[in-house]
Amino acid sequence: MQVIDDLKALWPLRDFRRLFAVRLTSQTADGMFQVGLATLFFFSPENASTAVGVATAFAVLLLPFTIVGPWAGVLLDRWRRRQVLLVGNLVRVGLTATIALLMVTGGVGPAVYVLALANLSINRFLLAALSASLPRVVDGPLLLTANSLTPTLGAAAAFVGGGLGFLLGLVLPEGHLRDGAALIVAAAVMGVAALLATRLGKDRLGPDERADAAQLRAALGTLARGLVEGARYLVERRTPAQALGIMATHRFLYGVTFIASILISRNLLSDPTDVDAGLTTFAGVLGASAVGFMLSVVVTPVLSPRVGPQRWIVLCLLLATVSQLLLVVSVSRTAVLVAAGALGLAAQGAKIAVDTIVQRDTADAYRGRAFALYDVLYNAAFVLAAALGALTLPDTGYSRVLFLVLALGYAAGAVVFGLASRSAVDRRTVDTPAPA
């Protein structure tokens, strides 16, 4: 298999192996933690059985990092990224253990929501640090290979962690003790991720230039100007800005479908009064998406180098179009699962290509800010999708007209991005002088 060959090519790189281990372990813990939150927010009898309820929960979870995300870029361009991975995971251990204690002693309350939001915000910060660090341990033609494997297998690790959390919930008796036990296991795995980060040298992941305390305060004080400079740089480079734009569009459309799938699983394909059945149905939908994610590991390294990352993104958008048209025709269990698998392949395949473009075409001095902006757009698009879902989705989650609109949105995105990326390539060809 291509993925085995790719791993063999990357495996001799010692620091890649170490960074890869941190990603897999950290995202496994994140999957366990997020399944616990999904059960709490979307599949408990008293929570989120309507479109407005699901949309509100997503907005509460994602909006905070959308706000604090710009600060992450400044820090990632000035702090040792290895230390970010170490300290960030240790902080998550403390937050998760505290949430578990609150769940066991007092149940769900405002403090649980606040700590959960902080935990998820740190996780997004860690993912940005992992992406910004990858070019420091892999370069040349292997960077595309690494981009194909690490985010996708990291997502697969999150699915594995989620599956473990789901199984743990089935084994333990229902109640606060079950929720607390799952979180304690997740905290332990986060601690392992922190220990694995110590195998990397403090300066190995960059950045090359770091600021002292006074310089850092000055940088944070001029945050808006720094972000404007970073955004202007990406726009001038053209290809990173185009990649971020189509990623945000893709994420927005994907978010509407994801919210609809929760409601369809709970209220249409299952008895709305049986939350366990709804959770099981949604777990099947997530499993189908995981299959699509894993297929992207096999397909992307084969096709993306041949057609180029921009054209691969266009193909992924067209596949997403087909997935939504399938839901226009039918909302049967089989159709929902097939559409979820196809959309999972399209979403992850496009993300791999976007990561490659941003990393390849962004200088290291701006890379932290680029991926912080990446995450801000990533989450803001989902918040907007939640708002659209609240306004347009029925409580069953299914609207034939809406899925047709989503299909047209994906098709339009493919056309616009294809034309824009071709223009950027043509301009680069004209502006680049011939070799002597």
From TrEMBL:
UniProt cross-references to InterPro entries, sorted A to Z: MFS, MFS_dom, MFS_trans_sf
Compartments (UniProt record): Cell membrane
Domain Major facilitator superfamily (MFS) profile: from-to ranges: 243-436
Membrane topology: Multi-pass membrane protein
Keyword Cell membrane attributed: yes
Molecular functions (GO terms): transmembrane transporter activity
Keywords: Cell membrane, Membrane, Transmembrane, Transmembrane helix
Transmembrane region(s): 20-43, 49-72, 142-168, 180-200, 281-300, 312-331, 337-358, 370-391, 397-420
A Gene Ontology term for the protein's cellular component: plasma membrane
Gene3D superfamilies: MFS general substrate transporter like domains
Superkingdom as given in the UniProt entry: Bacteria
PANTHER family linked: INTEGRAL MEMBRANE EFFLUX PROTEIN-RELATED, MEMBRANE PROTEIN
The protein's name in its UniProt record: MFS transporter
Organism: Cellulomonas chitinilytica
